[in-house]
Amino acid sequence: MRRKAKEMSALEVKNLKPQEYNRYYAVGGVTGLCIQVTPSGAKSWVLRYTVPTDKGESQKRRHLGLGSYPTVTLTQARESARTIKEKMREGIDPVEQRQKAKRALKAAAAKRLTFREAAKLCHAKHAEEFKNAKHIAQWIKSLETYAFPTLGNLPVAEIDTPEVLAALKPIWNKKPDTADRVRQRISAVFDWAIASKVRKTNNPALWAGCLKPLLASPGKVKKKKQEGNRHYAALPVAEVPRLITDLAAREAISAKALIFAILTAGRSGEIRGAKWDEFDFEERVWRLTAERMKADKVHTVPLSDAAIAILDSLPKDHPSGFVFPSVRGLELSDMAVSKMLKDAHMADKRKGGQGYWDPVQNSVATPHGTARSSFKEWSRQNGRYPDEWSELALAHVNSDQTRAAYARGELLEERRGMMQEWGEYCFRRSIVG
Fold first, then answer.
1. How many CB atoms sit inside 10 A of residue 396's CB?
2. What is the CATH number of the domain that holds 46?
3. Which of 1-15, 264-278, 294-308 is predicted with the least confidence, judged by mean pLDDT?
């Protein structure tokens, strides 16, 4: 028969000294109640007991923590131990009961997990799979903009297809590319929730079987939208040198950025985000990485004398590294470039001129249209350069075999002559200052 432990007093418990290893002292009063003393002197209460194994033998030893000393006093530890022992006589294993309670709490927490919280956890898990920091930011930003207002505060375990549909419908026909990406990202959040055991039901954002019967095909919506879209307003080719003369007389960084965009047939974001380390002045080229391009492909731009002159007119020691920094030292805004062209238009009108107008679109020319469409029209009118050359200059995705064959070699030297002639045409009425 096991010897019954002597009941310790509160003072005896207090005076227990640390040893070189963990020690368990039976404090008496309740069978199995011990106080553990670590080498550092920390003390905690432990109830030690055994439960039957699967074979029915009392061999499985349990250690159940009852709290730290002196937060939990000797009297309180004995009371807790007696309560637990009473439950054990009723056939309740306290360790299993605790584990069951933890599982219940975990399940309750999972049920309360919102779509917003799940999306952030999913995003953190998969961030390393993205190609670059821009895509990492875009992934969660698109959900913040288009999904969170509808789904953000809803429990991710309870959302169904109607709620997903409510989030997507406002942008499905207006922004088909964005809407389809958002749907895929919403679907990824539900996949994560299912794999994490937070959600038990099927993914309500799947296209097949869920949303396909309820929404138009994103490909068909995009095609219809493209067919209905008007082109960006562009300045007639004959008017481009006049605009360049006007802009060259202005000191604003936005004017120089717009000139450079026209000379390189570049997109606004490519120009505004340009940094000095992208330029090779010895080779006279501008090399843009894939992540800087709309088509996610590396693009090399041969620089004309006029383009080099614009770059030479700019300070190269700005801390931001931007070629065309804003007044605050940040990336120049798209609005600043657009406003420059509108201001030039209004100023020309006030002087009795015709402004910078697209007669086809019947509206003020835009930077995008003038930099790209006007260049494309000039190359057609010129007649000396194959269409594929101007397509490469515009960094358009090449779909057919002929253009793909041209694209593999980039035709850099051939395009160099084309861009040089375009620069000479643009500046035939002005000199860069």
1. 16
2. 3.30.160.390
3. 1-15
